[in-house]
Structure of Sulfur dehydrogenase subunit SoxC:
Amino acid sequence: MKDDVKDRNAPQSPARRRLLAGGAAAGGLLGAGALGLSGGLKAARAATAPAAADSLPPAVPDWTRYLGAGVDAHPYGMPSEHEAKVVRRSVEWLTATRESSVNFTPLYALDGFVTPNGLCFERHHGGLAEVDPAEHRLMIHGLVDRPLLFTVEDLKRFPQENRFYFLECAANSGMEWHGAQLNGVQYTHGMVHCVQYTGVSLRTLLKEVGLKDKAAWVLAEGADAAAMTRSIPLEKALDDCLVAYSMNGERLRPEQGYPIRLVVPGWEGNTWVKWLRRLELGDQPWYQREETSKYTDLLPNGKARMFTWVMDAKSVITSPAPELPMQQEGPVVIKGLAWSGHGAIKRVDVTVDGGINWQTAQLHGPVLPKCLTRFTFDWVWDGKPALLQSRCIDETGYVQPTMAALQEKRGVNSIYHNNSIQTWQINENGSVENVRLG
Amino acid sequence: MKDDVKDRNAPQSPARRRLLAGGAAAGGLLGAGALGLSGGLKAARAATAPAAADSLPPAVPDWTRYLGAGVDAHPYGMPSEHEAKVVRRSVEWLTATRESSVNFTPLYALDGFVTPNGLCFERHHGGLAEVDPAEHRLMIHGLVDRPLLFTVEDLKRFPQENRFYFLECAANSGMEWHGAQLNGVQYTHGMVHCVQYTGVSLRTLLKEVGLKDKAAWVLAEGADAAAMTRSIPLEKALDDCLVAYSMNGERLRPEQGYPIRLVVPGWEGNTWVKWLRRLELGDQPWYQREETSKYTDLLPNGKARMFTWVMDAKSVITSPAPELPMQQEGPVVIKGLAWSGHGAIKRVDVTVDGGINWQTAQLHGPVLPKCLTRFTFDWVWDGKPALLQSRCIDETGYVQPTMAALQEKRGVNSIYHNNSIQTWQINENGSVENVRLG
């Protein structure tokens, strides 16, 4: 077998022979003086460039010298063991029990705008319900002409929709109302994910049961131990909501409501009822626990903001971040995400001096409404302290505010709907800290 | 604990009390006469409709009566156990060894156009290489001004690109040249997947090393035991190729070339060299094994088509399919995928009578160039035999051909580049068969 492998790897060109004849792959930072780099990157790159190849030919590595695993090895594939740290994480002290808690998306490690299903943040109120799809039913009743029970297979026979949407918990960044509390973008902003959902339009299902004239609200109820319930105005239900059965191509993950969940584009995640089992039509909201005691904002005047469903425009730099300190001076890609519950992101600006100067970042298309948008900004770090922020503008012209501006309106009692500008302080040693600038 | 759960689930509206008071969730097909369905769906749905809710109130299911798992359960999430059959599968007799074989994407089970990373088809020529990203290097040399060695971290410091592309093996549907051979869309068409790739433009890297005037071709070489090598013309390398390190947001999966692979949009998958370790610039192609002995098409006149890189426009119905027989008469969503290596899909037509009548399917956006496009067609099955086909047209005006048309040009010796129209025959018992119509 070894001879076979050797034959297959036999050099086939003079250049390849040169390459294979080399010594150990030590890597490193050599030959910088020879590098021609364009524009402003030149000086910075000179100190930190890739190694000159002729002085450091790589050896044939071990993994080229034996046959790897065959195709039986991984019927359902998993990430490399070298990426084992890239997982969802929770915060022990955040909630009273693990069954009513949050597992945060590792935003610092991700690219693009699609969140892989295995890393989508999860929030439970009664633990992860284990629903048998064959036994599951969706009931639609109340102020309707024909109350109906749907199996999951019934739902798949209706015309389907496929759309990318972000899902953000209303409490995302909530701890930050009280200063810079959490050191890591996974924890400050990781209650958001974005996938391609597939399902049937809620409008289609409501048409199927027929609405009585007085119908004005929909109560959505989950089949989990918390029987999560939220009131949704009919106007939204008839607009762009879905009863979804797939995410990123495959069936919903158990922790995301398998076999069906409500998708309420642009609205706080708590309304996206998982393990959806019931939709009731009524003429007024139900004032459930999760829309009165919770998911409201106590204002300075003693009143509470209620039914504040839409997630306003927000952005955050995901790298560098506290989890990803600066490695060296020179070129670095500042990466981040922006989103708005009101539509598409129009522009993202980035500052590296705490807001004195702003520059426009590059948006990576397709830029879709109510969907995460990846932005990047190519920067050259000079090794000195810096204050990084991003600020987005959505298609309605709304500009992401500072925390000071939010607190002026809402005081300091809020937990939900913090969409303020986030600051990362880069220290001289390259470490990155969560700080409050105003 | 039981009391706690009961309290939390206490009925909160009269309607809810009614619901909870019901009997067993038997499900079934009741109350059809009461259903008002619009337009052409009415008659068909009447026989097969969701159950009337009042006659069948569902019991509170078991899974609502206990707390589910907490957020520690799944740091990296996996699909439901009820979806355990949805995995990549291989064909024992297709290749001599498992290390040089194919694992097919279960297209029949998927929605949307994003393929989840765990289900992306894989093709190996020397097994799955286990590369240590810290030790891995990419060498760019040959007809360049400054040969360089790049670490993976070096690559991440260049401006990044994020783009959705399909990847199709040139041999996808290859067995079908000789009639209807494989019974299942996973096997006939499952050598294709589509993800959002993130990486650095190859153009950027070639600019970094500087090209000598005579440079006209790039040799790409992998670090696997097969040391996969392909020649790529410089024009394509400078157009839209990437050296990618992420897919669907997270790092490349091991079987997809971790830590880096070449992305050659719209071109046959074999050129997308995985575990990429070397790019050599030359003035002519290298005529490697994989572009002479393999990945060429022997024509009737004894000559072979060579360097046929672009994947022409193709489509297939993914459901119904042999794996997903018809369950009942009435409404059904015909779903499929279309793609073209030349650009965006412009239109997909569907026939249910073997090509006598064609109707235009709905495309689910965003419709992106060199990317899978999901299409659906809402059909009402009358329970009689039918012949389903899809036919796509891309933005260049090219129309997906029949196998007869392909064979007229290329004869019967081909394996690669079969983009012909696929036929599924629906039998009276609902089973679905792969048949050849012409």
